[in-house]
Amino acid sequence: MKVAVLDINGKDTGRKVELSKDVFAIEPNNHAVYLDVKQYLANQRQGTHKAKERAEITGSTRKIKKQKGTGTARAGSIKSGVFKGGGRMFGPRPRNYGFKLNKSLKRLARKSALSMKANEKAITVLEDINFETPKTKEFKAVLKALNLEGKKSLFVLGASNNNVYLSSRNLQGHEVVNNSELSTYRIVNANQVVLFESSLEGIETNLSK
């Protein structure tokens, strides 16, 4: 699968790169994508929610009315959850929402997500760029040249490039990551995936194992 390489102005450089069929042209496994995205979102949850139960409420523990003869339900403590100001019944407790997935499944999920984007013509290959200093204005010019304004985009670097990363940080909906930080959620969440030319080798190496 050959894709044209674009320059910083969004124009064809005349060169083409071959995208690996084992990474960008497999039969997508939707369930693997679902599980990997579910795990990513679960790991974002802090799990610090907590409500006070009846044992943690300050209040009298005396029996508030006699057991029988009132015509109403029996009640032993004002701290019961059925009374105003009482403890929460079956309230949330701190917990870890994370769960484990096998590495092979996670690789399959990322390859499936990339293959989906390739089928949708939502992958762009851009020649490597660098900014002398971090400037949001320069990154916005790249977005405009690639017609990505108003769209969610994911830029994948071949190696760490602090100037490009910092130039994009203030722009909502646009993310810059290294090829080692590529995740299924980030791929699926983007309208367009922009792969820098130097990132292809790392992506294919990481996902072809």
Automatic annotation (TrEMBL):
Q: Give UniProt keywords alphabetically.
A: Ribonucleoprotein, Ribosomal protein, RNA-binding, rRNA-binding
| GO CC annotation | ribonucleoprotein complex; ribosome
Protein's UniProt keywords contain Ribosomal protein: yes
Asked if Ribonucleoprotein is a keyword of the record, the answer is: yes
Q: Which InterPro entries match?
A: Ribosomal_uL4, Ribosomal_uL4-like, Ribosomal_uL4_dom_sf
Against Pfam families, the record matches this protein to: Ribosomal_L4 (PF00573)
- Biological-process GO terms, alphabetical: translation
Q: Which GO terms describe its molecular function?
A: rRNA binding; structural constituent of ribosome
Looking at the record, which segments are called Disordered?
Answer: 45-77
Gene3D superfamilies, per the entry:
3.40.1370.10
- Share what the entry says about its subunit structure, partners included: Part of the 50S ribosomal subunit.
Q: Tell me the NCBIfam families matching this sequence.
A: rplD_bact
- Its biological purpose: One of the primary rRNA binding proteins, this protein initially binds near the 5'-end of the 23S rRNA. It is important during the early stages of 50S assembly. It makes multiple contacts with different domains of the 23S rRNA in the assembled 50S subunit and ribosome. Forms part of the polypeptide exit tunnel.
Family, per the entry? Belongs to the universal ribosomal protein uL4 family.
Q: What is this protein called?
A: Large ribosomal subunit protein uL4
User: Which species is the source of this protein?
Assistant: Mangrovimonas yunxiaonensis
